[in-house]
């Protein structure tokens, strides 16, 4: 009896000992390699240990002027998402890849969209009389199609039918300016109609060769052709009013754009470009530019523009105050910058 009791106690202790022993936990190593290109990764570069089955979040943040390309796990492409997850079921090596942003300028020449890069020019295969770009969302719009260009290649997004006119887009809205009716039609990015707003009651060609800028999702500015006013459109209210009038010394205003809080506008008076805000005196940037600037983009150090009378793509340097003809092109219309 005594032996039986001792045996029971022994086995009970043995069972307690065995069940109390912690289960062995398997760990795997995650090695984050130095990224290719410029950007930050999380987890940071180095070795990290995780328990088996742990779901690790990988996060990439590209530097300015760079974009995230992909994650590779053990030398094989894993994901193209900035943030993704990885389950630890073995030792793994992870590497992030960043690509430097490319930039180009698009203009319209003889009914075809022309791409201008440092390496030269090329047609991108879009035949149209009107187009515009939303570089924030990497979309090109024509009257009948929209394309995604974020990869550097064109991918068709949608097909629709917009009313004929010069096109401008941002904040999910497209403005089509009809230069014969002096009416601006507004559309959503999927081509659905929003509203028509008259510039004036009696059409007189005010919208001919006009240039537009969206200030926000409800406000659109348009320069008058052959006059000295900027027109402001309130889309939700369906109204148009004068945003700013220039003196007679600035005649026949045309191409204009925005950089930060400043606007820049071209006038045929002395073939000059002026910087201005809603209030205050416009300040001349310079004069003597090639005649009839048909589109311009202002950056911190230079102005990119096309002139259809002078048949070319030009740059103007703010420091040297020199204008350079970069490329000879026949009667270009409008200019848009794209990054990808």
Short description:
With 340 residues, the chain is mostly beta strands. It folds into 2 domains: 27-100; 103-339, 6 Propeller (Neuraminidase).
Largest sheet: 5 strands, mixed
Residues in helices, as a percent range:
under 10%
Return the average pLDDT rounded to an integer.
Answer: 92
Q: Count the strands?
A: 32
CATH superfamily label of the largest domain? TolB, C-terminal domain
Q: State the domain count.
A: 2
Give the CATH topology of the largest domain: Neuraminidase
Q: Terminal Cα separation, in Å?
A: 86 Å
Strand order of the largest sheet: 3-1-8-5-6
Unreliable residue stretches: none
Structural class: mainly beta
For the record, the CATH class of the largest domain is Mainly Beta
Helical run tally: 1
> What's the Cα radius of gyration?
30 Å
**CATH architecture grouping of the largest domain:** 6 Propeller
Q: Can you put this structure into words, describing what you see?
A:
It is built from one helix and 32 strands. The protein has 340 residues and is mostly beta strands. The chain folds into two domains: 74 residues; 237 residues, TolB, C-terminal domain (Neuraminidase, 6 Propeller), CATH 2.120.10. The strands form eight sheets. It has a five-stranded mixed sheet, with no helix packed on it. It has a four-stranded antiparallel sheet with strand order 11-10-9-32, with no helix packed on it. Strands 12-13-14-15 form a four-stranded antiparallel sheet, with no helix packed on it. The longest helix has 19 residues. 29% of the residues are buried.
């Amino acid at each position: 009896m005594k032996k039986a009791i001792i045996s029971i106690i022994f086995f009970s202790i043995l069972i307690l000992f065995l069940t109390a022993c912690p289960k062995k936990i398997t760990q795997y190593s995650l090695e984050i390699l130095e990224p290719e290109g410029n950007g930050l990764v999380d987890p940071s570069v180095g070795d990290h240990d995780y328990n088996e089955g742990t779901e690790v979040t990988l996060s990439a943040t590209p530097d300015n002027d760079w974009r995230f390309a992909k994650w590779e796990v053990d030398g094989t492409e894993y994901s193209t998402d900035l943030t993704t997850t990885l389950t630890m079921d073995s030792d793994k090596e992870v590497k992030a890849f960043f690509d430097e942003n490319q930039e180009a300028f698009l203009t319209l020449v003889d009914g075809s969209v022309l791409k201008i890069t440092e390496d030269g020019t090329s047609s991108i295969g879009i035949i149209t009389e009107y187009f515009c770009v939303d570089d924030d969302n990497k979309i090109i719009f024509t009257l009948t199609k929209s394309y995604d260009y974020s990869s550097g290649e064109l991918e068709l997004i949608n097909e629709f039918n917009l009313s004929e006119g010069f096109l401008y887009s941002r904040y999910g809205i497209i403005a089509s300016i009809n230069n014969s009716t002096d009416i601006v039609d507004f559309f959503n990015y999927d081509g659905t109609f929003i509203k028509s707003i008259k510039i004036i009651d009696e059409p007189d060609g005010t919208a001919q060769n006009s240039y537009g800028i969206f200030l926000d999702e409800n406000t659109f500015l348009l320069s008058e052709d052959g006059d000295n006013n900027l027109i402001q459109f309130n889309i939700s209210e369906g109204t148009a009013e004068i945003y700013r009038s220039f003196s007679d010394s600035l005649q026949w205003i045309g191409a204009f754009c925005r950089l930060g809080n400043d606007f820049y506008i071209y006038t045929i008076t002395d073939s000059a470009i002026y910087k201005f805000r809603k209030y205050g005196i416009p300040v001349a940037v310079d004069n003597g530019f090639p005649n009839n600037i048909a589109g311009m983009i202002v950056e911190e150090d230079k102005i990119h523009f096309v002139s259809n009378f002078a048949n070319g793509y030009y740059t103007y340097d703010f420091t040297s105050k020199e204008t350079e003809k970069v490329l000879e092109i026949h009667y270009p219309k409008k200019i848009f910058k794209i990054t990808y």
